[in-house]
Amino acid sequence: MATPPEYQRMRGSGRRRAQFYSLVSVRNSVWLAPDHLLSVDDVFVNERYKRFFFRDVEAILIRRTWKSLLRGSAFGLLVLLASALLILAQRIPPSPRQTSMVVWGGIIGTLGSILLIFEVLAAILLGSSCRFYVRTAVQTEELVAFSRWRNARLAVEVLRPRILASQEEAARVVPGSAPSSGSPGEVVASPGPEAEPV
Fold it and tell me: By CB atoms within 10 Å of each CB, which of 31, 145, 187, 193 scores lowest?
């Protein structure tokens, strides 16, 4: 009986919508085995597994996104709105209206400030947001577990030598078995829609 492979969880986790119109989010984690990568999508009690054998990987693609900047901007606008409410409340005479403006300004300002602080800390500690794809001959799969630039780069550092070693071994066993659409284990990064080799 074959011994099941030992898995090591890779750094990073992320969520995505189960479908475009769905309110249910899917939690994605990635696990490392000696010869493949295992992507696990978790929805409540259901799990979906996808394996990417290193010998089949043609490329890893990373593309920066504006998601973290847009979120930070939205939270910053909440803080500005709260500041505007509090400034307006100081300029009107004491009344129930002034009290409600102060209360709502405090609530919105506190909420916006907390969210903005978390987003700024995430950007500092984990880097900007990005999309991470693994491409094989039959599919291109996004791994949202690596949705932050720092986690994505760490994943590339771990995966690249394994992919190269696995494909070199496969090429020795079966000559000409390495992917024909570029060098084995090609890694591409991009600040935007166009990908550039690194």
Answer: 193
